[in-house]
Amino acid sequence: MESHSYALPKGVHALRTSSLDLRPDALIDHDILNPPSITTEKNIWFFWHSGFSNMHSYTQRNIRAWHRRLSKCGWTIRVLDRQPDSPLNIANFLDIKDNNTFPKAFTDGTIGGAYAPQHTSDLVRWPLLLKYGGVYADVGLMLIGDLDAIWNKTVGDPSSPWEILSYNAGGPSSRSLTNYFFCSGKNNPLFERCHRLLLALWAADGGKTSTDGMCDSPLLKGVPHMGGTFSVPGIVNEDGSRIDSEGVGRMLTDYIIQGQVATMVMSLVDEEDGWNGPKYCAEHIYAIDYMEGSQLINEFTAWNGPRAFRLMSLQLPNNGEGETQEQSEARRIVEECLSRSFGFKLAHGLILRVLGDTLGSLWRANEGSDDVPGTYAHWLRYGTMYWCPDELPQRQEWKVEEPIKRGPLLRES
């Protein structure tokens, strides 16, 4: 990827080229498809049901950038799948028949609903981290910050108190970790309890095949539904009727049920098990603000996907030309993301029903639009490969909050 004379933003430094894997894409892809055996916790886990070779090109570029940035620091990118006879099939890494690892619907391949692929991937995240450690990230997450440096400061340092690194969608007093980026060592006690609770939700009523209705489980009593009170024009049921704000909240909560599970475990005091979630959170989680850390483009464009796509598709002005207002807005997005953010999450899934097209869905629909030389999108991609913010993301200061629940994890209350 050539620079096209892109300007280095303030607060950003160029990485040493010797620290990057700058070989052609075909050689990078070979390494991604043929990772070495697991010998350390420095694993970057991704999951795509049909495998890396069948991913959308813009997410393949995301994955290659992770490899180029991190492989020489000892990290291995592993894109697991469920393809028969694939060496990267999840069954080669985890026992898919173990009901303490996966629900029956995963084992049988009967997970249904409109978002079955997303919920399938949800179920592999905690088991992979519990067994092997490292990072689990969505394929739509673009890396911007220095993951190796923050790993060495937190999870990767045995003397550090920080055992989990993630984004938090709430404020310092609200516990809402985003499941598109989890980082921990093996056998993490919070993630172990989270996974037990998630499996219990899937096992309810004789075994579920979707997350529909999980938000009402007594095991999650007290955890607020997501979305708050709002109405979204145009979101309707299959019969054409409007979904009210409560219905939207329930839909969002079922969709992101893994987040609800984590919030409950973080807010649980279980004296029988010796677990104090609020205390563990305050003492052992390095939480990054999710908006600045991973959603700045959406903040600058008010979650307007078509506007973000238009701005990022603009060509930079030629030498001697002045900026238009939109070029100025696009430049600010790129400069702020590259200097302030740790990543950027390209949104897909249910959010398309709630907010309409996103930058990610439009990059998917417009093949190659994220990689046109001389555009702001290409400038952003160039920066995520060759540059890095000067500062590591700050940790939110968490205090010990009042628990939502007192009692055993799997006892209804």
TrEMBL record:
GO molecular-function terms, A-Z: glycosyltransferase activity
InterPro entries: AfumC-like_glycosyl_Trfase (IPR008441), Nucleotide-diphossugar_trans (IPR029044)
Source organism, top-level taxon: Eukaryota
Pfam family membership, one: Caps_synth
Name of the molecule in the record: Capsule polysaccharide biosynthesis protein
